[in-house]
Design goal:
- It is a single chain.
- The protein is mostly helical.
- The chain has 18 helices and 3 strands.
- A 3-stranded antiparallel β-sheet has the order 1-2-3.
- The longest helix has about 30 residues, at about 170-200.
């Protein structure tokens, strides 16, 4: 086995070898994308996604066609045909609703009382990891990035399944229920394991309670004392509801379709979706928002001074402050224009939670930044469509108020989106039929082969 010095020498040799052959600098000429009509990022010129499939699971709208023109509208998100705002409004008299949304996504219909009771009871029974799984899998070589630990755990569950490669819908549904049930445990236990082995934190593994909701169990398993308020659990439940699904075109859900179209097993498909969500351009956006606000707080002393806030946000947009990218993280969306319905819901929850936590001043700062950012971006970028904040703008703030560590921000997203991924997997298996196989245009040069002894 190589020691650390030998590994560094090995890696340096690799970089030298790659540099000699030009292997680290082979970039495609950007002009060729327009020459061949390639839609980079699978997006049209107006930012909308290229149509690559059909779905009945969810719909995302930010425009309406009126007399042949695209007119911005208040954002709309539908789960199985039901508007998310109507669902959330209808949930007001219920305690926890992520389970009901999961039922809707998987089965396509809203449950009656008995169906919901039976489903919640079954989901509680599926919240069970194999015997000694925590010791043998999660506790071994815990990863600093919890998403990697979750991928490994999900892939290892394949080995504990008596029929892992059966992709008939009944079996995939069974596997989906298992993964939806254990995803919170996998995430929280991976976090605890890393904190214990690398940061010398006390190790507390608390088993889920079958009688509690997903949101309650997450807080109960995460906190050392297992305590939480009803408001905290309700707010986290709302986060799970609005993150559960967002159309088939987002990167991780598209990954679910692509990988599922090959006929692979459920565990591999979900692990691939987790890999997609881990990317900071997808699941980690709220962390960027939180970093940006940390910077704003350090440079704006009076959070009630809108003029000072506006001036500093303008510096961010001009690339003179924060990370010098010119981006205001959490502002703008590929589809939504006037508003993101998820952000509207989350803003309301953030307000209630901030009042309970005595953080109204900080909440007001978020609202002010949202307001001035929208105005400045429209003005300075000469945008033809309105700019609204997206769901990531408030989610990190909410998670922080809930005491959720930053390492679990993206895993919380995964705990919710697993319901949508599983619904799309079953839809792909039922309706797809063909492996998804896009095309790439070769723009290199054909060359003449020379024998090894003739090469310089």
């Amino acid at each position: 086995m190589l020691n650390d010095d030998e590994r560094r020498i090995r890696d340096d040799r690799l970089m030298v070898l790659a540099g000699q052959s030009g292997g680290l600098s082979r970039q495609i000429d950007p002009s060729l994308y327009s020459t061949y009509g390639v839609k980079r990022g699978l997006r049209e010129a107006n930012g909308r996604g290229v149509l690559t499939g059909l779905t009945e699971i969810s719909d995302v709208n930010g425009h309406r066609d009126v007399d042949g023109k695209s007119v911005p509208i208040e954002g709309e998100l539908y789960y199985q045909g039901y508007k998310i705002t109507d669902l959330v409004e209808g949930f007001r008299n219920h305690r926890f609703n992520f389970e009901e949304v999961t039922y809707l996504l998987l089965f396509g219909e809203l449950p009656n009382r008995k169906q919901l009771r039976d489903f919640i009871d079954l989901l509680g029974q599926y919240r069970e990891l194999p015997s000694k799984f925590v010791r043998d899998v999660i506790m071994k070589a815990p990863s600093a990035n919890i998403m990697n630990g979750m991928q490994r755990s999900v892939l290892t569950l394949y080995s504990y399944d008596s029929d892992p490669d059966d992709i008939t819908i009944p079996n995939v549904l069974r596997q989906s229920m298992l993964l939806i049930g254990v995803m919170p445990m996998i995430a929280v236990y991976n976090y605890h394991a890393y904190q214990h082995y690398h940061n010398d934190r006390s190790l507390i593994i608390r088993y889920p309670d079958e009688e509690l909701s997903a949101a309650e169990n997450i807080l109960r398993m995460l906190r050392d004392d297992g305590q939480y308020t009803e408001l905290e659990a309700r707010v986290l439940d709302a986060c799970l509801v609005i993150h559960a699904e967002h159309g088939g075109g987002n990167n991780s859900t598209f990954t679910t379709h692509v990988v599922s179209s090959t006929g692979t097993d459920t565990y591999s498909a979900v692990a691939a979706s987790l890999a997609s969500l881990k990317g900071p351009k997808h699941g980690g956006a709220n962390l960027k928002v939180e970093n940006m606000f940390k910077d704003i707080k350090e440079h704006v002393n009076n959070w009630e001074d809108e003029g000072a806030i506006r001036a500093y946000v303008e510096q961010i947009i001009d690339g003179e402050a924060f990370d010098h990218t010119g981006l205001v993280y959490g502002m703008g969306h590929a589809i939504y224009t006037l508003s993101d319905p998820r952000a509207v819901i989350l803003r309301e929850k953030a307000k209630k939670l901030s009042e309970a936590k005595g953080l109204e001043e900080e909440f007001n700062l978020y609202q002010t930044v949202e307001k001035v950012s929208a105005e400045l971006l429209t003005e300075k970028r000469h945008l033809s469509k309105p700019v609204c904040c997206n769901v990531d703008f408030y989610s990190g703030f909410v998670y922080s108020m809930l005491g959720i560590p930053r390492q679990l921000f993206t895993p919380i997203f995964a705990m919710a989106r697993i319901s949508g991924w599983c619904a799309h997997r079953m839809e792909e298996i039922s309706s797809g039929g063909k492996i998804i196989r896009p095309a790439y245009k070769y723009v290199g040069h054909h060359r003449t082969y020379h024998k090894l002894e003739d090469r310089s």
